[in-house]
Structure formats: structure tokens, C-alpha cells
Amino acid sequence: xxxxxxxxxxxxxxxxxxxxxxxxxxxxxxxxxxxxxxxxxxxxxxxxxxxxxxxxxxxxxxxxxxxxxxxxxxxxxxxxxxxxxxxxxxxxxxxxxxxxxxxxxxxxxxxxxxxxxxxxxxxxxxxxxxxxxxxxxxxxxxxxxxxxxxxxxxxxxxxxxxxxxxxxxxxxxxxx
Length: 176
Prior knowledge:
mainly alpha; UraD-like; 61% helix
């Protein structure tokens, strides 16, 4: 059940963190930090507080957020240890239904990406499909570290936006 912004603003700290703690994958510290920015005027203000917190982090903090994300179609998916949100997002993009050739490519590219950048490849799976994800992963392996860190953070923000939409009612058309 999605809640209105007044309900969000009335949440005690613990409830706020429990409900919103995974809008940024495995980073409840982000929502813990923005709780004190209440009251939020609307959905956009809540999302803006999260974006501002992320943007204010040093580069090492941004990489820390990226490191909290699982590999797409990786070990966590295979072992069933993904967060519920990640499991649904990856399944929606077909990451749980790769052919053996696709799975092999994904494993190799994920390893190459992590070796090059030191954090996993992050893409908003809900806005993509397996063919596009594989293509992007191969292409993005060629980027410079700073470019890729910034791109990964933009993808985190897209994921956060969609996860927030699942929790909070909006009073305006949604834009990414």
C-alpha cells in the first residue's frame, strides 16, 4: 500500500528506515540521514533529499553505494540471497532466464567490470532487458573510472526513483 507524504512525514525514525531503507540498495544509512530533513513537501522533495545526500558524498562514498549492489545474474541471484527488490527487478529484466551463453557472457563481463572499476556494474534493470543489459555492460567496461562511477550513481538514482514510486503516492506526473 502506497502512502501519502503526510504519512511519510509522520513516520517515527525506525519505521522510516525500515520502510525506505532499501530504496538505495543495502544502504539504510541514506534514508536514516534524510529522515531529519522532514517534513517533505511532496514526493519530489523526499526524492530530492536522497539525491542531494548521495551527491554530497565524496567519491569514495559513492563507490561504497555502488559496491552495495549485487552483480546482475550473479551469485546472489543464483543462491536466492538478493533483496526482494533486486530479485524482482532482475527477474523483470530476464536476468533469471539467461541462456548458458548469456550467463557465461554475463559472468565474464561482470568480472571484467569489477576488476577494472572496483565496484559492480549497476543499471536500472526495470528500465531495460537482458539484451540491452549485456550490451551496456560490454560497452561500459571501456569507460574511464570517473565516468563509470558517475554513470553508476545515475543508475542508482533511477532505481531509487522507481522504488520510491512503489512506496509513496505522488501528486504530479513522474519524470526521471
